[in-house]
Amino acid sequence: MQQHNNHIRHIKNDRLETINPGYRGNKTIKGRFANGDELYNPDFSNVLKWQLSQNPQRQQKKQDNYTPPLLENSDFLYDDRDMLVWLGHASFFLRLSGVTFLTDPALYDIPMLKRRVGTPCPPEELRNIDFLLLSHGHRDHLDKKSVQTIYQGNPQVKALAPLRAGDILRSIDPNLPYQEAGWFQKYDLVPDHVEVYFMPASHWHRRGLLDMNKVLWGSFVIKTSTQTIYFAGDTGFAPHFEKIEELLGPMDVCIMPIGAYKPSFLMQKSHMNPHEAVKAYNQLRGGLFVPMHYGTFDLSDEPPSEPVRLLEQIAASGMLQGLRVPAIGEPVLLTDDI
User: Fold this and answer.
1) Up-side HSE of residue 37: CA atoms within 13 Å toward CB?
2) Which of these, 308, 306, 334, lies nearest to 323 by C-alpha position?
């Protein structure tokens, strides 16, 4: 038993403040991050099972050519109002109190996955970005070419990343400044009038053959004097939503993933379906609900229009207040009375 415990460590960035009292840091077992306390290794026999089984919605999916509406627009880059702009998948442009953020940049086709819809403007035109928020290392959230493009056009940009993401970032560009945080930690690179916290998510990491769970994953909370924004990253439904609300209060805006949930035997531990996303939003005592992680890449078995259709049905039934489904490139203004 003693032998086993030697493999367990709790790590965090010792330079940063931790806001969860008594939290020792993220648990690693033999150098691999746990999902909270449990080691979660996606069962790759499930991937095989998925590839060998027939999608019961195969015909429906084939006939469903839905893509999110796209508004070609770059005006938001030069507007000084607080806003969020969806760029497709989990990529958002956010401006809060004069500080600009770009979440999970995947602005091009990625290896083995083509974008099904474009970006509001060519990625090379994205300017005035202060921080990259990187929730985890999967290639549809941390895309090498996208990060290189943003850094070339925004030499002032800094990356806020999970623990042990530094090696990935150095391989993308050795000069890109970054800071790593563990769960419940507050980054200190951000100007004082804006707070950014790295918070839990229920997910996993793999980018190569031998790096399973070697890099942490998580979500972000951004707080200003007037509002609190939650960006969920990729996550399954788990107890962390209640914990986040307990520590940081109700979320004025929740940017929530709603796609890539079928088949559930493969996806349930790492992605949420629309019902789970709404349940999480209600636990966060959310204001505005902005969906993401649907329609841009084909990652799963559900037809592309299903996530938004289900979400709109849930809203119509009264279980979801505050739904806002923007087009890609459509600014959502974040005023004090959202």
Assistant:
1) 2
2) 308
Q: How far is CA 123 from CA 108, 173, 270, 323, in A?
A: 8, 17, 28, 28
Pair of tokens at residue 267: 């996806």
The backbone torsions φ and ψ at residue 301, rounded to the nearest 5 degrees and listed phi first, read -90, -20
Q: What 3-state class would DSSP assign to 48?
A: helix
- Hey, which bits of 187-276 come out as E strands? 195-199, 219-223, 228-231, 253-257
* Residue 47 pLDDT > 70: no
- Residue-by-residue DSSP string for 112-159: TB--SS--SS-GGG-----EEE-----TTTS-HHHHHHHHHH-TT-EE
Q: How far is CA 333 from CA 76, 190, 296, in A?
A: 10, 22, 23
CB 280 within 8 A of CB 272: yes
Using alpha carbons, select from 188, 189, 157, 162 the residue that is nearest to residue 173.
Answer: 157
In whole angstroms, give the CA distance from residue 185 to residue 197. 6
Contact yes or no for 100/73 (Cβ under 8 A): no
Tell me how far apart the alpha carbons of residues 247 and 256 are, in angstroms, rounded to a whole number.
19
User: Which residue ranges make up each domain of the chain?
Assistant: 2-40+62-325+329-333
Is pLDDT of 1 > 50? no
CA 302 to chain centre: 20
Q: Select the more confidently predicted residue: 63 or 272.
A: 272
Half-sphere exposure of 48 (CA within 13 A, CB side): 3
Give the fold, CATH level 3, of 2-40+62-325+329-333: Metallo-beta-lactamase; Chain A (3.60.15)
Q: Where does the chain have alpha helices with state H?
A: 2-5, 44-52, 58-63, 144-153, 166-172, 240-248, 264-267, 274-283, 306-316
The whole-model pTM stands at: 0.93
The answer to whether 279 and 97 are in contact (CB under 8 A) is: no
Strands 178-181, 158-162: pairing kind: parallel
Percentage of the chain with pLDDT > 70? 90
